[in-house]
Amino acid sequence: MKFLLVFDFDHTIVDENSDTWIVRCAPEKKLPSGLRNSYRPGHWTEYMGRVFVYLGDNGVKEDEMKRTMTSIPFTAGMVDLLGFVGENKELFDCIIVSDSNTVFIDWILKAADFHKVFDEVFTNPAAFSSTGYLTVQDFHAHHCAKCPKNLCKTKVLKEFLDKQLERGISYTQIVYIGDGENDLCPVMLLKKDDIAMPRQGYTLEKKISQLARNLSPVECSVLVWSSAIDIMSYLKLLIKK
């Protein structure tokens, strides 16, 4: 009997957007308006590539970026929740599927000693170039019209579940914890025994409510959370069953 916990990262594990948090490293802690206005919907990774070039051009080095990123606050109750999951790893497999990047997530999890809680992290690959600039690439290519061009979380989740089945691992229940619009696609994949946990007041909760009002509700159960303590309470009930 094993449960799969799927976490988004920004506004879910951390209480901010890691990609906008890095702007604190920029001169005067802001981006020029031309750069800010260069974002096109669905092309966030390309936009962040330009942001990282701007930071590099302004002499922002890796150690400064790391200091800034590791100061990002965790969401209320998240430290307790991840501690609890870490103590019960025999019951929980745990993955992150995020539109952030490998460098930021790695820094943040390692600084808080949470990297061992997660079995895998699926996010946009990033690395520092020989000139010291941070570069980021799309996670994959896909054909889902609902998702940004660099990442379809449903594709990631399907491929992970298929790979686990090949290893003889299937899950009693999938618990999906997220907040954003790009979390709706994978929530639609969940079955009636699974549970979606959207963060209260954020886009995912609003989108799920909208579907229910339009009489096409999601198939899984839905439990809204405002603090990660709400999630931990649910998981404690789950493992008592």
TrEMBL record:
Cofactors (names): Mg(2+)
Keyword Cytoplasm set for record: no
Keyword Magnesium: yes
GO MF annotations in UniProt: metal ion binding; phosphatase activity
Binding site for substrate: D19, D99
Pfam families: Put_Phosphatase
Keywords from the UniProt entry: Hydrolase, Magnesium, Metal-binding
Domain of life: Eukaryota
Residues that coordinate or bind Mg(2+): D8, D10, D179
SUPFAM superfamilies: HAD-like
TM stretches of this protein: none
UniProt-annotated catalytic positions: D8 (nucleophile), D10 (proton donor)
Protein family membership: Belongs to the HAD-like hydrolase superfamily. PHOSPHO family.
Protein name from the UniProt record: PHOP2 phosphatase
Annotated source species: Centropus unirufus
Lineage of the species this protein comes from: Eukaryota, Metazoa, Chordata, Craniata, Vertebrata
Gene this protein is translated from: Phospho2
